[in-house]
Design a protein that fits this description.
By secondary structure, this protein is of the alpha+beta class. It has one domain. The protein has three helices and two strands, in the order ααββα. Helix 1 packs antiparallel against helix 2 and helix 1 packs antiparallel against helix 3.
């Protein structure tokens, strides 16, 4: 696998997760309350909360939190299938 292909895969997976999460939240907001809405809107977070380091002239914020829902997992899975089909 070339470095160019690996960077394309990384960017594609990140975009799929971000856009999939956004689409899942938007679709879930239009659905009536029930199991299907819960499937689209329920998410879990992986990561750590932001930590703020205050120095005299500089304030640094360090943190990373990934919010994952059903549609983001589905979109990441589809990107992996697409990558395997066309690039490997």
């Amino acid at each position: 696998m070339k470095k160019k292909d690996l960077s394309f895969l990384t960017v594609a997976l990140l975009l799929a997760a971000i856009l999939g999460g956004l689409v899942g939240d938007i679709i879930g907001s239009f659905l009536p309350p029930g199991a299907v809405q819960t499937l689209f809107t329920k998410s879990f977070s992986i990561g750590f909360e932001p930590t703020i380091i205050k120095l005299y002239a500089i304030t640094l914020t360090i943190g990373a939190m990934f919010k994952i829902n059903f549609v983001s997992l589905l979109s990441v899975f589809l990107v992996i299938i697409y990558f395997k089909w066309w690039y490997l």
